[in-house]
Amino acid sequence: MSAPSALPNYLYKILPAAPPSPLPERLPLSDLDRNDGFIHLSTSEQVPGTADRFFGGCTELWLLKIKYEVLAAGTDGDGRVKTEGKAEVKWEEVGRGCFAHLYGADLGEGNVGEVLRVEKKGTWAESLRLEW
């Protein structure tokens, strides 16, 4: 499936626990990402629904905020653009939405722009206000 017509400025990776600080060049993959063969990402509009669905029991979440253009360029977690086995963001239909999946790269200090800690107040939809 192709990318949405209005590409987001940022994509987010949802984590149920704090990532290492400082961020390493390569963050460990979640079991889901390892099994699926790609890193699951969400737009700002998708994060609340994904958080409510998969992380509803958590009282806090950690979000990796990543500039879309950095991932679209093929930047790996070490900050280098991969030329062989290039990293790629693919937009794929999942359920009722089209989600970004990162293939062929890791997340890390070289492509994650910011780490955000969010506390749950009510639902995640009520607690999250993110940049598109």
Automatic annotation (TrEMBL):
<dbReference type="InterPro" id="IPR009297">
    <property type="entry name" value="DUF952"/>
</dbReference>
<dbReference type="Pfam" id="PF06108">
    <property type="entry name" value="DUF952"/>
</dbReference>
<protein>
    <recommendedName>
        <fullName>DUF952-domain-containing protein</fullName>
    </recommendedName>
</protein>
